[in-house]
Amino acid sequence: MPIKPENRNRYPVNWKGISSRIRFDRAGSQCECEGECGLHHDRRCEERHGQPAKRANGKSVLTVAHLDHVPENCSDDNLRALCQRCHLRYDVDHHRKSRSPGAQERKENDR
């Protein structure tokens, strides 16, 4: 998932290397989600980076999630390689809580 420009300085200068190591070396190019997103119960997600997505159109893209939602905390036990679908589902409550008041008003007005 793209890093917002206003958060770029919260990531270490070697973030690309850290991200690559987590996604490809540790995770073997497969989503590491085992139910944290609410979709997979007692099994690992099947999505593999660059392969056709099993439950969406297009190719699966592997991202790295900060489990505590703190970009400065890049310890391995706080990072998880997740496909975009699992990452978005994992972060949904955090996104709701951190949404700006203006964004919430716009969303309510769109209904």
Describe what you observe in this structure.
With 111 residues, the chain is α+β, with helices and mostly antiparallel strands. It has one domain. The protein has 3 helices and 2 strands. The chain has a two-stranded antiparallel ribbon with strand order 1-2. The model has no long low-confidence stretch (mean pLDDT 87).
Short structural description:
The chain is α+β, with helices and mostly antiparallel strands. Helix content is 32%, strand content 9%.
Secondary-structure topology with pairs:
Layout: H1 15-26, E1 62-66, E2 79-83, H2 84-98, H3 101-109
Antiparallel strand pairs: 1-2
Query: How many domain modules?
Result: 1
How helical, in percent, are the residues? 25-40%
Poorly predicted regions: none
Mean pLDDT: 87
Determine the number of helices (DSSP H or I, runs of at least 4 residues). Answer: 3
Order of helices and strands: HEEHH
| Shape, principal axes of CA atoms | globular
End-to-end Cα distance: 27 Å
Structural class: alpha+beta
Number of strands: 2
- Spatial strand sequence of the major β-sheet: 1-2
* Portion in beta strands: 5-15%
Notable features of this structure?
111 residues; globular
